[in-house]
Amino acid sequence: MTDPRSQSTYQVRLGWGERGLDALAPAGVVIVVDALGSADPLAARAIALEHGPTVLIGTLRNATATAQAAYDEQLARGGRTAIALVLAGDDGAFAVEDYLAAGAIGDALTARGIDHSAPDVAVATEGFRALGRAVKHLVSASASGLALAAEGRRDEVRAAAEVDADAEPTLVVGPEA
């Protein structure tokens, strides 16, 4: 029997950090979700996966553009493509802002007809929809947001909480490209 934590029966899957990346079934598109911080280590690990997925960095700022890029990749592949949302988290801990960003991306995927989502994705998506008007406050009041503000980086936190402020996705390119 396939490990149910792999979410292999769903097109859109969600996991946390390196463990989540390793536990999810292989996906043609991996979206490393990191609203406040550096997704670089997790993105590098995703690029190195044996099955060679397309790797994107997803944030609140580029949620719709990221979903569109995943949709476009599916069209380019000519068939249904699995999408893994892998939340970077805050030093391995739960990060509200990443969960909200995953929900924003999930919402945008649904708008494009990609909605065969694991329960984890559905909860993130519905959480984002319900809390959409409070996103700026929730990001600034999150542990990561408060920590960055205490370092004098409040403007970065505010900017990170702007949903769809960026019209372009962030594609991660491996070393051989």
The count of strands amounts to 5
For the sheet with most strands, the description reads: 5 strands, mixed
Residues in helix, %:
40-55%
Give the oligomeric state of the chains in this entry, treating copies of one chain as homo and distinct chains as hetero: single chain
Structural class: alpha/beta
Q: Please give the count of helices.
A: 8
Output the radius of gyration.
Answer: 15 Å
Strand residue content = 5-15%
The H-and-E topology, N to C, reads as EHEHEHEHHHHHE
Shape by Cα distribution: globular
**Average pLDDT taken over every residue:** 93
Secondary structure layout:
Elements: E1 12-16, H1 17-23, E2 29-33, H2 40-47, E3 54-58, H3 63-77, E4 83-87, H4 96-111, H5 119-131, H6 135-141, H7 143-150, H8 154-160, E5 170-172
Helix pairs in contact: 3-4, 4-5, 7-8
Describe the structure in brief:
By secondary structure, the protein is α/β, with parallel strands linked by helices. It contains 8 helices and 5 strands, in the order E-H-E-H-E-H-E-H-H-H-H-H-E.
What does this structure look like?
- With 177 residues, this protein is of the alpha/beta class.
- The protein is 46% helix and 13% strand.
- The protein has eight helices and five strands, in the order E-H-E-H-E-H-E-H-H-H-H-H-E.
- It has helices spanning 17-23, 40-47, 63-77, 96-111, 119-131, 135-141, 143-150, 154-160; strands at residues 12-16, 29-33, 54-58, 83-87, 170-172.
- It has a five-stranded mixed beta sheet, with helices on both faces.
- Helix 4 (96-111) crosses helix 5 and helix 7 (143-150) runs antiparallel to helix 8 (154-160).
- The longest helix has 16 residues, at 96-111.
- It is globular.
